[in-house]
Amino acid sequence: MVSHSKSRVCFQWIPSHVGVFGNEEADVLAKEGSALSLQSVGTRSAQTALARLRSGHIKSLKFIDKEKAFSSCPCSCPASPAHIIDCIGASARQLWSGEGKGLVELLERHGVMDLV
Ligand SMILES: [Zn+2]
């Protein structure tokens, strides 16, 4: 990439925390960047929950004598994907549209993340 560029790029190691102009700012930005990647680790469980709901392979799904069975929802109904979505007041549309962020918030608010 650098070799195809007409501008000259110079890489140089810079000692940290010795007052080099711009380096402290770069350090702050790097820390912010690493905090962002921690946040995306946080949303990973949300992404996993959505993927599980979309595929129907949620944690509450068990196979008993090769038949599908579901753990109980807090409302005591079988916690199938369709039931969970219905029970938390969400819609299938929320599951399939956008990031599903609102849906994940509903799952958390109703304490059913461990079923998904
Ligand atoms: Zn329920």
TrEMBL record:
Residues 1-35 form the RNase H type-1 domain. Gene3D superfamilies: Ribonuclease H-like superfamily/Ribonuclease H. It comes from the Eukaryota. InterPro entries: RNaseH-like_sf (IPR012337), RNaseH_domain (IPR002156), RNaseH_sf (IPR036397). GO terms for molecular function: nucleic acid binding; RNA-DNA hybrid ribonuclease activity. This is RNase H type-1 domain-containing protein. It comes from Araneus ventricosus (Orbweaver spider). The lineage of its organism: Eukaryota, Metazoa, Ecdysozoa, Arthropoda, Chelicerata.
